[in-house]
Design brief:
Helix Hairpins, 2 domains, six-stranded parallel beta sheet, globular, binds adenosine-5'-triphosphate
Length: 326
């Protein structure tokens, strides 16, 4: 894995500053947006490992900025990062006041400057459009709400950076089926146990409920734990009747997590459309076929990889190369 080299530019203190006659060019930034589960992380790792090896990823998922609940918030694992540097991922203390879009604007722009000083390519990746908007809007008003309500505030069309927005999109019927499968996989990987630990250890008492406490999975299982004290699961049932009650309670929590995740995806897409319709130049990449292949039992991993490469990686790499060459 190629590592980033520190900048080799040496400036002479004695040299007289040159007066620039041309306007300074804005920093180039690639942004991968899209609904939860649409494949943003996978594409960012493809970029970072194969095409744009100087990439450094800046996470823009508002729940993944916090430390803890790694499975529940579906953070990319160390292994899956393949050595591509990640920023603002699991670094904010969830007990402190919530990390707001204004915080993201401030910290995100500092990270962008650092990445630039290493001659890296900042890759902003994540589904929280309030974070994306705050980071890029030239005139950002934390009080304004550009996404919600019947009469939302106007979207700032002037941007602080030169951005290439890639939107990885998957049609809803296919994405919803995939999200349901993903929740089952997250539970198989230990999401339930992670949440048991979160409540049993008392971590839930220190967490800020306007921050990480909002993560999908917490309220749904909190109801279950309240209804079934002792953090029991079906295998801890002591009668036939108990098995039925525990199974129903557990299935209800899982059903609500799946519903809420699908609702989240819908809201995220409507926010991307809001930015695009207002005039942000967002390039849509349709990843539906690759996800359809994932959902088809008989299609092996190779077929999925081929479709992903042809329909997602190739067109988006082309867009980014063109953007960087401009
Ligand atoms: P909003 O203004 O609705 O908070 P946003 O653009 O700031 O929208 P989203 O990414 O759409 O942020 O997240 C909205 C909500 O979705 C979060 O408050 C949280 O409940 C849930 N959510 C988002 N990301 C995750 C995640 N990784 N894990 C669990 N829940 C999440």
């Amino acid at each position: 894995m190629e590592r980033l080299k520190p900048s080799t530019i040496v400036t002479s203190a004695a040299a007289a500053p040159k007066i620039s006659t041309t306007r300074r060019r804005k920093q180039k930034i690639v942004v991968i947006m899209g609904a939860t589960g649409a494949g943003k992380s996978r594409l960012s790792i493809d970029f970072g490992t194969r095409f744009f090896k100087n990439s450094e990823i800046i996470n823009s998922d508002k729940m993944q900025v916090y430390s803890g609940l790694d499975i529940t918030t579906n953070k990319i694992t160390m292994q899956e990062r393949f050595g591509v540097p990640h920023h603002l991922l699991g670094v904010i203390d969830p007990a402190k006041s919530p990390f707001t879009p204004s915080d993201f604007r401030k910290v995100g722009s500092e990270i962008i400057s650092d990445v630039k000083s290493r001659r890296g390519l900042p890759l902003v990746v994540g589904g929280s459009n309030s974070f994306i908007y705050s980071l890029f809007a030239k005139r950002y008003d934390p009080e304004a709400d550009v996404f919600n309500g019947l009469d939302p505030d106007p979207v700032s069309l002037e941007l602080r950076y030169d951005c290439c927005f890639i939107w990885v999109d998957v049609c809803f019927p296919v994405l919803n089926r995939y999200l349901s499968k993903r929740v089952d996989e997250m539970l198989e990987s230990g999401m339930f146990e992670e949440l048991v630990e979160f409540f049993r250890s008392g971590e839930c008492e220190s967490v800020n409920w306007s921050g990480l406490g909002q993560a999908i999975g917490i309220p749904e299982f909190e109801t279950y734990f309240r209804n079934f004290p002792g953090y029991r699961r079906v295998d801890g049932a002591d009668s036939e009747e108990d098995v039925t009650r525990l199974t129903e309670g557990y299935n209800e929590a899982v059903r609500r997590i799946k519903d809420n995740t699908c609702q989240l995806a819908k809201k995220q897409v409507s926010k991307i459309l809001r930015l695009r319709d207002a005039g942000w130049e967002v390039k849509r990449i349709d990843a539906t076929e690759a996800f359809r292949a994932v959902m088809t039992a008989e299609s092996g991993g190779t077929r999925v990889a081929e479709i992903w490469e042809k329909q997602v990686v190739e067109p988006s790499v082309k867009i980014v190369k063109q953007f960087l060459d401009e």
